[in-house]
Amino acid sequence: MNKSIIHSDNAPKAVGTYSQAVKMGDTVYLSGQIGLDPGTGILAEGFNAQAHQVFQNLRAVCQAAGGDLQNIAKLGVFVTDLSNFAALNDIMGQYFTEPYPARAAIQAAALPKGALVEADGVMVLSES
């Protein structure tokens, strides 16, 4: 199976030794996105702004791979404070419609660059 590296200029450059996404067959493995503005590289202010930027960044990488957020089968969300869980659900509802992806929401002690939220995922472009 061929392995393709996915890159979007509409999402932040990787801040480490990883790719924005890797495609193998019809499956795309999306690396974690934090709330960095892709144009400035600056982290958005506050949880809500960061969460919106996270989903916009994920969307950009999904689109670069030939899909969109609705193609995500599994979403992992990491937050530094689970008291933001209700806000996360509200914001996620602005980017996803039913049927929603499977999801885990996990509190982490810290995230890269001091981010308050990060999300990664697995996207399937077509059913086998």
TrEMBL record:
UniProt-listed InterPro entries: RidA, RutC-like_sf, YjgF/YER057c/UK114
Pfam families: Ribonuc_L-PSP
Protein name: RidA family protein
Organism: Iodobacter violaceini
Highest taxon, organism lineage: Bacteria
Family (UniProt): Belongs to the RutC family.
